[in-house]
Every structure is written in structure tokens, then in C-alpha cells.
Amino acid sequence: MNTDAEEKRPGNSASYRLGLYLCPSVVFLLPAGRSFTDKTVTSHTATVTPEQAARLEKILRERGYVPREVPYARFSGVKPDHNVTCYQSGKVVIQGKGTREFVEFVLEPEVLQTAALGYEEVLTPELFDPRLGVDESGKGDFFGPLCVAGVYVNAEIIREWKSSGIRDSKNIGSDRQIATLAELIRETPGCVVSVVPIGCEAYNRMHRTSGSVNSILAWGHARVIENLMLQKDRMIPPPIRAISDQFARDTKTVARALMEQGRQIELVQRHKAESDVAVAAASILARHEFVTRLKALEKEMGHALPRGASAAVETAGRELVAARGPEVLPRVAKMHFRTRYRVLGEPEPPPNPWKPSGSGKSSKAKPESGE
């Protein structure tokens, strides 16, 4: 049966060839003459359910894979051009020059029953849309500024970053790696960035005025989006949306703070937004700015300023106040944190009452202490 047919893709004058992937109910369009198999892939990971693991083990056994012992593995098999290992956790690792062929023709259609490797642009084209990503760093740190960053990406940038290691900054443990990735992001052709640091003194003034961390975050996100949109002539093609983490119950919190240029773009707020590469890149730039400025504060104060809001932070705060006086604290710390009272030896106010949700019901929201 001939499964190839020439057709015009809606809204595009380019000719496309219809391809039927050997996976139930999966059909996609490939640009005529284009092959995804020309991309070298020598390693791939996936996660399987117990049922899928059993199916994979049966396939390896029936198709002549040579068994081998691997620590913590449920099973592992080898062929001349690749090996397959399934760990007790359900993680599957394929390695070798035959990786792509195994993934596309065995793992995805017969085990996972999904098609993903090499087909992202066909199956989920929105992942390659031109867009802005926005994120912040320093919100949960007593010492140091709040830094908000934004990044513009397009399909070409996303492809270039595919194996770069760019991911949510919280999953990167090394300041050196953060700095390396931040430099990569800034130097990527076509990428446009903006970073807005809010120093402690400005942050404390804003919090006294608004009484809300979310208001400061909304202003920071809106300012970054505005800064980027003022450079939209550098963004080719122009962004169609801005994505950020949803930090407030009311998604209109940021929307209300948007400025003139920011109102011209769709704003998408969602939980775990760092899974989007644009937001992940923004998180790296924001973290790098925070770390850099915190180190500068340490040098200025001649004193260590630990991150977070732990007992070690309280101890460092007391030592700093003892050495330089209490008036120094607002210059280096966010004064609405409860840590402030412990550092200064002041009585702590009672916890904030539960704030009502939009429905009028009580909501177990964490008080805005940053801790």
C-alpha cells in the first residue's frame, strides 16, 4: 500500500509529504524531502511503567540482545551498535550509534506507543513558537536582591540549545555552571534578554508601599516584558506570547501591572513554567544576577551572607548587626521576612491570618514571610 501522498499544508505554500508512523493513531506531516534520521543521536533516556518495562524486556529477549549485568538495573541488553538498560526506577537508557533507530522503530512504537524523538516540531509545533520567558530569583532569600529576567527565543535558538543543558536554575547546583549557561544565553545569536534587579533598599520601600511580595513580582515581570517588547525590532519573528510562573492566585495580578508594550502580547501564566526552555533560560539569567550581586554585597560588607532563610542566615545576620549596627540590615536584607525579628532580637508578630480565596473560602496560603 502506498502511504505517501503529496498535499499542501494549510496556510503554507510549501509541499508536504504525508508520513504514517508505525504507532497506533499517530499521523504527522513531514516537509517534502526532509528526513529526521540524519540527526546523530547516540544517547536517549525515557521513563517506562512496569507494564512497558515488561514489554521492553520481552522484546530484547526475543530479538537476540545479549544480557549484561548493570548495577541497579532491572535488565540490560547489548547489540553491536547500541545497548539498552532499564533501571529499577523505570528509567531506560539507550546508548550507541544505533540509538535513534531503536527509539524510533522499537521503543516509541512498540513500548511507549508515542512518537517524540526528532518529531517535536511536527507533533508539538508550539514548542518552537517565538516567545518570551520570564522568571525571578532571590524571592526566598533573606539576604540579597530580587532579580527578574526575561528571554526571547525562536525556533532556531531552541534547536541550538537542545543539548546545551539549559534547564530550571533550581536544578543546577553549581554557580560556575550557572555563569557558563548565562554567558551562552547572552551570546546566542538572535536571543534578546533583559534583567531587572531590585536591590534591598528599593525592595523594602516597595514592600512598605504595597504590603505584598506579589505586587513587587508583578511589577518586576511587567517591567522585564516591557523592556523586551521595546526591543521587538530585534526579535525575528516577533514573539506571540510571554510565559511566566503563576505566583499569584489571581492571574490578573501581572496583567494589571503590564505597561503599554506589554499589553500587546498574550500573557500565559502557569505553574511549573520553568519546564519551558524560555522560562528556564530566564531563571538562569535571574539566578546569575542574584548570585553576582549577593557576592558584591558580601565584599562590601566584609561578611558572609548565606542564601535562603535558615538558622545559618540568622546567625550571619546577628554577627553583621553586631559588627555594623542594625541600620545596615535594610541595605542587605528583605525586612518583611520573619528572620529580621530574630536577627534584631525583636518580638515576632503573630502569623498572618489565612487569606480568603477568590471564592470566599479560607485558603491555607503561606504568610508572606519568604520562609
Short description:
The protein is of the alpha+beta class and 371 residues long.
Helix segment count? 12
Task: Please give the largest β-sheet.
Answer: 5 strands, antiparallel
Order of helices and strands: EEEEHEEEEHHEEHHEHHEHEHHHH
Assembly level:
single chain
Give the low-confidence spans: 1-38, 356-371
For the record, the CATH class of one domain is: Alpha Beta
Name the structural class.
Answer: alpha+beta
Task: Examine the coordinates and then state which fold CATH places here, giving the name of the CATH topology of one domain.
Answer: Nucleotidyltransferase, domain 5
Q: Strand content of the residues, in percent?
A: 15-25%
Rg of Cα set: 25 Å
Shape: globular
Percent of residues in helices comes to 25-40%
Residue-averaged pLDDT: 84
What is the end-to-end distance? 64 Å
